[in-house]
Amino acid sequence: MKEIVFENVCKKYGKNTIIENLNFTVHSGERLILLGASGCGKSTTLRMIAGLEDITSGNLYMNGQRVNDIVSGKRNLSMVFQNYALYPHMTVTENIIYGLKIQKLPQAEIHARLTAALGKLELDGLENRKPKDLSGGQRQRVALARAVVKRSELLLLDEPLSNLDAQLRVHARKELVKIHQAYKQTFVYVTHDQVEAMTIGDRVAILDKGRLQVIDTPNNVYNRPANIFTAKFIGSPGMNIFKGSYSDHFLQLGKQSIKLSEAWSAYIGEKNCREFYFGIRPEHILLYREKHRDTFAGVVKYVEEYGSRRGIYFETEGSEVVAVTEASDFKPGSNIYFAADSDKLHIFDSKNKKNIGYPEVYHGNIYQYQSV
Ligand SMILES: Nc1ncnc2c1ncn2[C@@H]1O[C@H](COP(=O)(O)OP(=O)(O)OP(=O)(O)O)[C@@H](O)[C@H]1O
């Protein structure tokens, strides 16, 4: 399967730089997700891999071969587009096998691949329907079937689930992973939906304004975010970030301070950090109604209902903070006190905003990603 290497890849439209100095590798056979806000350059990156966009400078390699000047048709890939791009006048079968007929594959081979794909993608019985007579989910499966029958080494997917309703998306996410397990192609998958990214990806590459912010496993981007951008981008709501300082075992936030664990104090001392940003995920904040030792104080401003849990927005030292909790008795205007377990605290360098790491004692404590 294909390994893809970006080496100092830049893309400009006229004078506008859209992609800046991209350096990363998509490993052979992995599911890599390109994640980022609208306009960050995800589709452009995917289209450069597909050979549908020129590369302004830098090199793109596939299995060690430089492919900058190799046309799309010769890159041994298939692509699923957001709008599926099915041929409206063709039936499901005709859509799926169209590319194989163009390749002039033997009839028996075409038939075998079609039958396997119809079965795997649960399209049996729909062979003679036209796209207009299919549901959104069925159309999406036809588009996937058309892509997988090509048995190319690389499958590129551009927001393939965005036209599906929320329930169907949950189902389709699992189906995509199963398809990958069946065909084992290298997947590069574009989405702006972080739940999709976290649930489908072996690794997630997060782009911001054409720059790669991080490329890591879903577990790490959530539990061990490499920088403040990633910490705030991943999670729903994202991580709370505070400008703080450290002095002699105490973490200071504005006029308030709490005592840090021995492990953090030693670690921060070792790193010689005085001023930094610290972060706590909303779902990891410990909330109290009464003042406790080693808590910060705030005032509740707003409560957002999520059903089983709620988001409590409160203000402390001039910053807005959000905590996600099952507790239902925090009301706007009431006092609130908060802290975080030491193994759920994150500290970022005040200048480059990168994660400074964790004391060794907390390395084993990894929490699962949850979305509200
Ligand atoms: N042909 C083009 N000419 C000029 N600018 C373009 C062209 N295609 C894309 N862009 C610009 O490049 C930037 C990145 O676009 P791209 O489609 O890659 O973003 P994206 O992250 O995929 O966004 P979305 O999630 O909204 O599709 C955008 O600012 C877009 O306006």
For the biggest sheet, the summary is: 6 strands, mixed
What small molecules are bound in this structure?
adenosine-5'-triphosphate
Proper CATH architecture of the largest domain: 3-Layer(aba) Sandwich
Could you give the count of β-strands? Answer: 20
Give the mean pLDDT.
91
User: Which band does the percent of strand residues land in?
Assistant: 25-35%
Order of helices and strands: EEEHEEEHHHEHEHEEHHEEEHEEEEEEE
| Name of the CATH superfamily of the largest domain | P-loop containing nucleotide triphosphate hydrolases
Number of domains: 2
As a percent range, the share of helical residues equals 25-40%
Spatial strand sequence of the major β-sheet: 6-7-8-3-9-10
Low-confidence stretches: none
**Structural class by secondary-structure content:** alpha+beta
Assigned CATH class of the largest domain: Alpha Beta
Task: Tally the helices.
Answer: 9
> Distance between the terminal alpha carbons, to the nearest Å?
36 Å
Shape, principal axes of CA atoms? elongated
CATH topology-level fold name of the largest domain: Rossmann fold
Radius of gyration: 24 Å
Pfam family, one: OB_MalK
InterPro entries: AAA+_ATPase, ABC_transporter-like_ATP-bd, ABC_transporter-like_CS, ABC_transpr_MalK-like, ABC_transpr_MalK/UgpC-like, Mo/tungstate-bd_C_term_dom, NA-bd_OB-fold, OB_MalK-like
Protein name: ABC-type sugar transport system ATPase subunit
Keywords: ATP-binding, Cell membrane, Membrane, Nucleotide-binding, Sugar transport, Translocase, Transport
